[in-house]
Amino acid sequence: xxxxxxxCDLSKAYGDVQAVDHVTLAVKEGALFGLLGPNGSGxxxxxxxxxxxTRPTGGEASVLGIDVVKDPVxxxxxxxxxxxxETPPSFLTAIEYLKFVAAVRKIPDxxxxxxxxxxxxxxxxxxxxxxxxLSRGTRQKLMFTQAFIHEPALALIDEPLINFDPIMQDLVKxxxxxxxxxxxxxxxSTHILEVAxxxxxxxxxxxxxxxxxxxxxxxxxxxxxxxxxxxxSLVRKDHHV
Amino acid sequence: MFELFTSMVRExxxxxxTMFGSLSFALFPFLIFGIAFMxxxxxxxxxxxxxxxNLSIIVHANYLMLGLMVGGFGMLGNEVMNRRFGQASxxxxxxRSLPLSERNIFANFVVKDTVYYFxxxxxxxxxxxxxxxxxxxxxxxxxxxxxxxLTLSFLFGLCGVFFLSTVYAWSKPIFWxxxxxxxxxxGGIMATGMNPxxxxxxxxxxxxxxxxxxxxxxxxxxxxxxxxxxxxxPESVGSEKKYKDSFTPxxxxxxxxxxxxxxxxxxxxxxxxxxxIGQTIFSFIVPLVVIWFFLSLLGRFFPPHALLFLYAVTTGxxxxxxxxxxxxxDNFGPYACLPVAVSTLITSKLATFxxxxxxxxxxxxxxxxxxxxxxxxxxxxVLGIAVxxxxxxxxxxxxxxxxxxxxxxxxxxxxxxILVGIVITVFSAVSFLNPYYALGAVILAVPAWIFxxxxxxxxxxxxxxxx
Lengths: 241, 467
Ligand SMILES: Nc1ncnc2c1ncn2[C@@H]1O[C@H](COP(=O)(O)OP(=O)(O)OP(=O)(O)O)[C@@H](O)[C@H]1O
Ligand SMILES: [Mg+2]
Description:
The complex is a heterodimer of chains A (241) and B (467). Chain A contains 9 helices and 10 strands. The mean pLDDT of chain A is 92. Helix content of chain A is 39%, strand content 27%. Chain B is built from 22 helices and no strands. Chain B has 2 domains: 1-235, no CATH class; 248-467, no CATH class. In chain B, helix 17 packs antiparallel against helix 22 and helix 19 packs parallel to helix 22 (445-460). With 467 residues, chain B is mainly alpha-helical. The A-B interface holds A 48, 51, 53-55, 72-74, 76-77, 80-83, 85, 87-93, 95-96, 99-101, 103-105, 128-130, 133, 143, 146-147 and B 83, 87, 240-248, 251, 260-262, 264-265, 268-269, 272-273, 330, 333-334, 336-341, 344, 463-464. The site of magnesium ion has 4 residues of chain A, from helix 1.
């Protein structure tokens, strides 16, 4: 199977803070990959580097075969991204924002697709409301839509379920699980370990910028272990070293 | 309350200093000081051609202008709290979770901005003059006095625009009525041949000190300030309003532009946020009317057409700041998940900027007509617009997408002043000689183009500003 994401010794330092510390990681096509780790462990930084939003200070990475440093815009053309802080431009309405995204991404005729998404995520009534007046959850729905509207081969999502109500969480979980069945890849960061265990096929654990573990979920299950317990013991152990 | 104020000042300091280092920012007042100090030694020389009284008019006008530029708080209202400096300005925003009223937070914000600008611009300038005064044989008392009148000029501009912009946000009809009354008053004074400086107490005060005048000035200032704060409405008006899609038609209309979706988005942002009309009035027309007023005070010392060209050049420089209108309320965040490079964004901002240049072009044309110099309409418009494009290209090169923040980097401001200063001096002088020489300003398109290319390369090579 081909590798969709390849990171080698990837590092990012903010002054003295080593946000990501020599991480080597590969994600296979068709995987639903979960990046786990405590607050400040470098998940967001990792996603930002993989999507060319910020430059690594060391190492290299390629996404869908494109070098993230040499061609960050090329990467963003091919993938879908939901950043940690969802801020759609505030004076556009929801539908205008989607049309804006479509125009930038050069997707013709998004009317039908947009309608499908408004129905699917149940926010058709907010279609003509300015983004700045939307509730956080609705804004997240909009960000979700913009990331998937061009049906990317790879989507990177920082906390996919945050701000969603339980019904939405269920819906979105199923959507993600379905999405990878069609041979596409999803890379998420999350704190909700139960969800990661349920839907992810692979996972990795970051702590203080270092990669503590990477492997398939199935491996854990074979050993009869559960992700939350595994995560806690690993991180706590590392914490005491 | 005072805690909030100091935290806000600290935040403002951090926003600037993290972007280009504390030193560069700390040096800013010193640069202003240096310019004033050195400039003071030129006074005896300049005085031979331009009476000192006129020089003081120019300096006061500049500080009035500065106040005007800073004072549009009422216009910005709530938006300013959320969006100035993007997500970095969390303080004014998060302060809402504290047990403080919005008006209180807003008052803190206004006072902070006032104090901040005072120490960045007003005080260092006056201080430079004060230190230079013994060398150029100006009595210390009169130099100190300048500090007072400059401060008053600055505050007049600031409070005046604060007041007008709050009235504007409060009720449009009353705003226009008010403007009409002002216009009539102004016209009346001009018509009766009274001293026009009557309209501007700090200048009057500078010419001749009197306690009553000083007291009057302070009362006027206090009234404007208090009324503005009272009128300010912290609640964003209206509830969840629905809009019909303006993006699609606009996109079609702008399809000739490079990156038309980005330009269309900018236009909608400008329009719906009220920035388009508000900024045009308060950051463009009001300052230019004021400049016209001051230039007309200087009228006797220039050949008649020279005034028009001087005015066109000034309009060009002010028009170039329209670039900050389109960059100020936007941050890179929303674009980070789209295939958009910083260079693309700069291009699209410049495209929107280009559309906005209709405003100065019409403005210069109208002024040319009104001042009876319609014969020189075309060279004047060409000169103004060429200067504007040249200045904006330098701004884009030096500041990328954050001109409003990076201008406080000493290196940036210094280079900007030199590059723009040389050009406007040369082209003003040339157009004084022969009005049609002003057409030669089209040559500025060449350096402008080069600077824009350099800007794109330069700003693609760094991570988008830390928002
Ligand atoms: N722009 C920045 N400037 C300086 N330091 C930063 C910046 N962004 C992140 N950091 C630091 O890098 C480290 C990793 O941050 P990151 O946001 O990647 O963590 P995270 O795993 O996403 O945390 P969370 O679970 O809370 O979202 C932190 O120590 C953070 O303080
Ligand atoms: Mg994070």
